[in-house]
Amino acid sequence: MAIVEELARARLLALASEETAAHQLLVSLMPRIEQADRDDYALEVFAQLGEMYLVRSAYDGVMESIRRLEDCLGIYTAIRAGTGPEGADQVTMTETEIDDMLCRYGRRAQFLRAGLAAAHGDHDEAAAQLDNLAENVDGPTELADEHRRLIDYARVLVATGLGDDDLYARSAPLWDAVVESLAKIGPAGADAEDDHLFVAGALGYGRFCVESGRLDEAQPWLRRAEARAEARGWALARARTQLERAAACWSAAEYAETQDLVTEAYPVIAEHARAHDVSRSWLYFGLIRLGIGRLQEADECWAHAERHWRELGKPLHIHRILLQRSWLSLFRGAFDEATALVAEARELLDSSPRHSWLQYARLDAHLGSILRAQALAEMGFDGLGRPEQSWQEVEARHAAGKGVFNCRPGSPKYLRGMALLERAADLKVPAALAVDSVRYTIANAGARMRWARTVSAPMLAGAFAVAWEGDNTELVCELVEYHSARGTFSADPVVQTAEDWAETATAAMPIEAELAPELAVAAAAPPVDAGGLTRLGPLPPLRMDPQTAPILSRYRELARGRYGRDVTAAEPEWSTWP
Fold it and tell me: Where in the chain are the domains?
């Protein structure tokens, strides 16, 4: 078989995620390519190898492929510039062929650099390389389709890298461009390269939609990606779409479907050894087992996930799985162990250049949950185990617990529990106020609703819980008053549309990358018709009683100091009494 046909066969193997076979074939071709003295074929080998190394997270191999590409291209660039005459007499290609080769493989090297920077989390460099690739338009018309695919695939990789670092808002414009390009791709089966691009783009966009709360939009794209992969016989691509559909099912509380999809997808994912997808599979296996009370099995699943994410060196993912595992320590009554896991998670956040205030707020709220559980255990809560118990005993106690505690008010245990709940409130209330301050800076109603449901509501519920369980009637009243004032309407309501809300906002719409994964929807959520609500942004000071200070003042100051969030508007205070 001719070398060019073998190169095409290797490419088809790579598109089918059969990288081992493709790698072996490409390496076996090098002696024949050297004998034929075809540098253009060698460049094709390096470009294909670099892309395979990239999808397998073998980043040293990507760098080596880029180096070989650029070294060879540098020689031919010098020859065309007349600065490398010693090699000119050995060249058998025409000037046009050399220029075409420089254009084609220069673009392939730019693509690899963009993908490698995205994988390393160097998002500014990734964006710069993507721009360079998109601007590299001078080239023969026969390379136009390949250039289009390279740009779109690079967008997928750069947007996915942003998502891996919780920078969903920055990735939204890239996904918009990807979706626009996917709509122009023809029917399945016409072209393997287009099918591969469609599957990669639809799968990535579907995952983005799941993680930003737009489940209805995710499902059609994931099913189309799965159908096209299945038609091609691409087993791994189909399994990865099943994993993303499982994530969507979990978000929609469809737990049986989650179990079925992950169970079906995992053998193929494990066979191809994609560490990130393997970790995510184990994450969902653990969540499912936690849901049915199999705590030891959940711990084993999350231990597998943590190991793979540590191998990949992803601090944000490691910090999340540590927080997840700390729940199991909490159920066992091993509060020191749970606290140590949270401390390690905080160190990982500190070490990541892409941490955000929201991640710290959630971490503090979780630490408050541990203190709350410790307080309830101190007061005789019946649903928690003890560190010396076996997993089976902890699981039995957890299943039999009725969620009650029995402690005499004023007793030493009661007083110790109240002290712990007060410490929990100092963590959970400021964190809840900080995230809720964002809610009404989002002008789009759909985005604001999702922020409330996925971020504000759980953390506010935790704040109310510690205030109530801590018998802190004053704090409960202040939280109720704050929550009531949060939905305030203007004294003179004006009929408005969702598009008008941005003009009445007292704070900028927070779609900056640092904020949160959920804010991706603020960049692209569909408008929701409504009218009358004009209060956007932090509330001014609230005074319930003319004889007392404004409510929640200390907690608002803690929120500002810890997270840098202005949760109090610099306006005259509101009097909330009649």
Answer: 1-164, 438-575
